[in-house]
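User: Fold this; tokens only.

Assistant: Input:
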Amino acid sequence: MSEKSENEKFRIEKIEVAGEVTKDSTLSKSVRELSSETTHTKITLQPYFCVCGKRISKENALRCSHCEKLLCQDCGIPYINEIHCKTCLKKRHKISLTKSEYMLLLCISKEIKSSKKIFQLAGMKTDVVKGTINNFLNKYLTEEPSSLLEKLFPKLRLTDLGNDALQVFEKIYGNDSDCLALKKHIEEYESQRKKRVYHLRG
């Protein structure tokens, strides 16, 4: 094969990186052709795969608004009217959660703050729970009082960023089997807690 010019190399690279899904036919074709004054090159394109391993098609493709990486619908994260990959979400908005951190915030959002109770519901070790809470203070979590009562009885709660992080990562982790199990455990715990309160008042 004859040596290609720098311009031809650039054009080939541009084709191998898919264009806008709604405007470019790259995702619907397996073969593209390039022509120049000296050569005619046929390029076979491999299927595109998301970072999660799922195949990307015209029907399920999204693009990160910042790095322009192609993502499947499950991995494209909508936030502030833009689509993000996990890397750009962390870099631009300081939002990043592992699954266990998401589960912890979910518990705290339901006013379950005891490390022992979180261990019972989510299976997180108590020292991990305490360490994560400490790391999240003044970012995703706060104990700053919002009322006179909370000055006397400090209350751990999610910050605005913490609520955003929980909602964003609900899309990523929310339907995983262990997270669905945790939600069920939380529902059962809340039901028992309401019954105890009703019994005491009765």
